[in-house]
């Protein structure tokens, strides 16, 4: 089941920048959804509660 999520402006800019670099490197289109999917696939297994708390503190200014 696919689900739609919102990204912060900073994340969108970083995603677009990385996408352009990969397009230049591979010389073929790279979809944003593929980048996000690979990022989640590669790092979700190692994500810890402390990482989420640090993100909320540093980026969202919460907790």
Task: Summarize the structure in words.
It is globular and about 40 Å long. The protein has three helices and no strands. By secondary structure, the protein is mainly α. The N and C termini lie far apart (31 Å).
Write the layout of secondary structure elements.
Layout: H1 9-26, H2 32-43, H3 49-60
Compact overview of the structure:
67% of the residues lie in helices and 0% in strands. The protein has 3 helices and no strands.
Count of runs of 4 or more consecutive helical residues: 3
Query: Unreliable runs, pLDDT <50, ≥5 residues?
Result: none
Structural class: mainly alpha
Radius of gyration in whole Å, from Cα?
Answer: 14 Å
Helix content, binned percent: 55-70%
Q: Categorize the overall geometry.
A: globular
Number of strands: 0
Q: CA-to-CA gap between the ends?
A: 31 Å
Q: Give the rounded overall mean pLDDT.
A: 94
- Please describe the biggest sheet, giving its number of strands, its sense, and whether it closes into a barrel: none
SSE arrangement, N to C: HHH
* Beta-strand content bin: under 5%
Write a concise keyword list for the protein shown above:
63 residues; mainly alpha; 3 helices; 0% strand
